[in-house]
Fold this protein.
Amino acid sequence: MNYWNPYLETLPREAYDQIELSYFRRMFSFAKEHSALYRDKLKGMEGKEIRSLDDLKKIPLTEKEEMRKYQEVEPFPYGGLLGSDIEKVTTFRQTSGTTGKPIYVPETYESWQWRIEAWCHILYMAGFRPRHRVFLPFGYNVYVAFWEAHFASEKVGCELVPGGALDTKGRIHKILEIRANGMMNTPTYGLHIAEEAKSMGIDPASLGIERMLCAGEPMPSATRKRLEELYQCHVFDHIGGTEPCAWAGMCEAKDGMHIIEPFFLVEILDRETLKKEVDEGETGVAVVTPLGRRSFPLIRFNTKDLVIKGKDSCSCGRTSRKIKEVVGRTDDLRKVRGVLFSPKTVEEVLRKEFQEVEEFEIVVERRGLMDVITLRAEPNPGITVSSIEQTKARLRESLKIATNLSFNVIMEPPGSLPRYTLKAKRFKDLREDIP
Ligand SMILES: [Zn+2]
């Protein structure tokens, strides 16, 4: 069987629209009645006024900042974000807090089961099946993604191996010892495991991983292909977050990601106005409404994920809407010397054309009145002095073509740049007044 839920994954477009509109109305009324945030935010509006998907646009977006404010009130620690009785909450989760104070996320047993079911779609779509022994190379802590991966794997019927409390070498030994053939990780950590394996004299392809599901960072297709080459396996991507849940995943056609409909109502809006839906092939901001999670109701959450809208049809036969690509976070888009710049473009160039570059970092700073953008690149240990100069020249040229910016390129000694075991922080903007 190709689908986790053959009925829901092949509905006609009109049926998705109808179901999602009706779920949305229900969630709207529920949120208004049960969460203090929405009692205030949706004042004067009624669920029955939403008659079409266009009417949605009249409802204000939910921003992370206001959620932080509403979290400060009682009941502790969820405050006005809570949608259920606090005694029904069965698990505490939180966001990583990289952009400010963390958001605390309550899950009831019911909402957690809804979340896991949505995640099963992602896992099954990426070809994970009961024959897979899946290694999860992280300590889960309070971060939701790993727990989702864990429970969805169980539900799909895979055999899940929790890989926390080990260092990277220990994890590599464990993969070999128990013959894991599946893995879920951030792209950064997938590359790091491969590098570490090589340093131990182990070819990453010999680890036996057949399927890898990535998340946590925007993954350029060149990075996905590099992981496929290193491990000689199939690599899939998906997108989500602690607040909106995981809402889209890649199928075996590996041509963009399917939105998990009708679990989520996803709008892709023009990034300047945040009002109009963009057309196929255009870039917009993803605004997500999880349609069945009541413990933590969210209406039109601004994910700040920039995505390219994809075409609706797919060779896999699924009929849900697709996104073509994740461009990055609106927080990461910067103006450098008046040019709009996304760090993902640099990663795409490096992973595609510069196999000799192992690790990198991008630094933007202001010298006098001038913005200076520097790439610090770390080559493979085996590189010769003469090829270092050639690589520098090629880097300057390729980056200029890809970004329209002149980069200052510095080659760093092997092993000198930081390595990341979760999400990478390879972009540093040191300007005081970031445009
Ligand atoms: Zn597909």
